[in-house]
Design brief:
The chain is 0% helix and 48% strand. The chain has 419 residues and is an all-beta fold.
């Protein structure tokens, strides 16, 4: 796999998971997923992996997410790319492949300029030449979302992509790369990569996303019955409580859990974003708290936001929904609480997006220092007419909605869609 000078940069996003093909995730098909080479083996390509433009890559022993080592990538020269790749030789056309990694910005010299990291899958086909020797040719590539200055230098960020293997392919290079389109600089680290093969015959109702990366727990994405009382804080929320003989009883909900954060990460994928990454007076960070959570176990998502800027301020987080079919669901449910010590805004803006590019927005109000569950009818996201292919859930902070407290901390847990 040779590529030194790039004249064209492709930043297309790979097609995410379709609901009808949502996987029962199995083993990690990549070897040496955390780059654990023998002791003292530094500044070389990790075992079982290849590299291109390798002068910019190396093994890091002082920065790692798990184990003893990670891979670092320094920004290459302008117009060039560098990266590492794993060649998997048992690809089955028509099956879907998920590819993910954890990445960390380098705080002394973070990614800057028009430079970015990216995952991609390079689909290849093996044929025989005239001497009956194997010859590999590239068929096509699928690219994941880019990541750059916005990734954290304090906490490992989860990035992922998904694509269906094209016809005639029999092997794939799973690659992590660092590209410098123009005036780029910086370094990032990568660790705990995973690729998983998903049969095209598996449907959403049997889907369990079992995090195969070591050190994580299972996250379930399946319909299940839930009971519980619902706190409401603003118009448009719906209670699950019903009246019977003058007393309140709990009503069972059938819900699709998309993020409970019990694995201590963003689950199927997500990250933070900022309207102006160069404005250091605004921003949002995502962390996961085992001390403050809804329920007795696991984690919640901790969001520290700051929109107290002299400039127009807008930031937040996004979570991947993997093109879920929510046409049979009526409501969005989630638990939220504010941090009484740090302070918090009583409102936040939520967004849902679909594969057609539609984005529906809803302003949620009534956040308090206690855990409160909000259940919002999907019809409140008025700009979305088709809920059959939902791609993204967004929490947004801005200097207007959060004018009551322009910097603070909130916790979010157990995001689900309810019938």
């Amino acid at each position: 796999m040779s590529r030194i000078f790039l004249t064209v940069f492709i930043i297309a996003v790979a097609v995410p998971l379709y609901a009808a093909e949502t996987p029962l995730v199995g083993r990690n098909i990549l070897k040496n997923e955390s780059f654990e080479n023998r002791p003292g083996f530094k500044d070389e390509t990790p075992s079982d992996w290849g590299s291109y433009n390798p002068d910019y890559n190396g093994i890091a022993t002082t920065v790692r997410r798990r184990g003893q080592q990670s891979v670092y990538m320094n920004c290459p020269k302008q117009g060039e790319g560098t990266g590492i790749f794993y060649s998997y030789k048992k690809v089955k056309p028509g099956n879907r492949y998920n590819f993910s990694a954890y990445v960390l910005n380098y705080s002394p010299e973070p990614i800057s300029g028009n430079a970015f990291g990216q995952l991609h899958m390079e689909w290849r086909k093996t044929t025989k030449d005239k001497d009956n020797k194997d010859v590999e040719t590239e068929i096509s590539r699928d690219y994941g979302p880019t990541f750059g200055p916005g990734i954290s230098s304090m906490r490992w960020s989860f990035v992922s992509m998904s694509a269906v293997a094209p016809a005639d392919t029999d092997n794939c290079n799973f690659a992590v790369e660092f590209l410098n389109k123009e005036n780029g600089s910086g370094r990032f680290y990568v660790d705990d990569v995973a690729a998983e093969e998903i049969s095209k015959n598996i449907g959403v109702k049997s889907y369990v996303l079992s995090q195969s990366r070591p050190g994580t727990k299972t996250v379930t994405l399946a319909e299940k019955g839930e009971t519980g009382k619902v706190e409401t804080g603003n118009a448009g929320t719906v209670k699950t409580e019903t009246e019977k003989s003058g007393a309140q009883t709990e009503k069972t909900e059938l819900s699709l859990v998309v993020a409970d954060f019990n694995s201590g990460d963003a689950g199927p994928g997500g990250g933070t974003w900022n309207k102006d990454p160069n404005d250091k007076t605004q921003g949002c960070t995502m962390a996961f708290s085992s001390e403050v959570k809804h329920g007795d176990a696991g984690f919640s998502m901790q969001l520290d936001y700051d929109v107290d800027s002299p400039n127009p301020a807008l930031d937040g987080i996004w979570l991947k929904l993997q093109v879920l079919d929510l046409s049979q669901y009526a409501k969005l449910g989630l638990w939220i609480k504010g941090d009484d010590t740090t302070g918090f805004s009583k409102s936040v803006k939520l967004e849902l997006k679909n594969s057609k590019g539609d984005a529906g927005k809803y302003t949620l109000s009534g956040i308090t220092k206690e855990w409160k569950r909000f259940v919002i009818p999907l019809k409140e996201f008025a700009d979305i007419k088709d809920f059959s292919s939902m791609t993204e859930f967004v929490i947004r902070f801005d200097d207007q909605v959060n004018a009551d407290k322009k910097s603070g901390r909130i916790y979010v847990d157990d995001i689900s869609f309810v019938k």
